[in-house]
Amino acid sequence: MDAASTRARTWRIAVGATIVIASVAIMAWIWRNGGALTPLTPPDAQAAIEECDRILSGSSAMTARLAPRIVSDFLSANGYQTAPAERLADGAQRVTGLREGRRCTVVIRTSETTQGFRDLAAGEADLALAQRPILPADVTLLRDAGAGDFDADRALAEHLVAFDALAIATHASNPVRTITLDQARDLALGLTPSWRALGGVDAAVRLFGVRDGTGADDFPNDMVTGETAGWDELEDKAEVMETESALAAALADAPTGIGFFSSAFLPGDGVRPLHISAGAAAAYGPNADDARAQRYPIVRRLFVYVRPEAMRNDPFIQGLVRYFQSPAAFDAIDGEGFVALRDGAPLTNAARMAEIGCMYGAPESAVLTELLRDAVRTDHHFHFVPNTNRLDDAANATLAAVAADLQTRQRGGERIILVGHADTEGSQDGNRALALRRASAVRAALESIGVQGVQIESAGEICSESDNETEAGRRENRRVDVWARPRAA
Question: Residue 65: which domain range?
Answer without folding.
Answer: 43-162+301-335
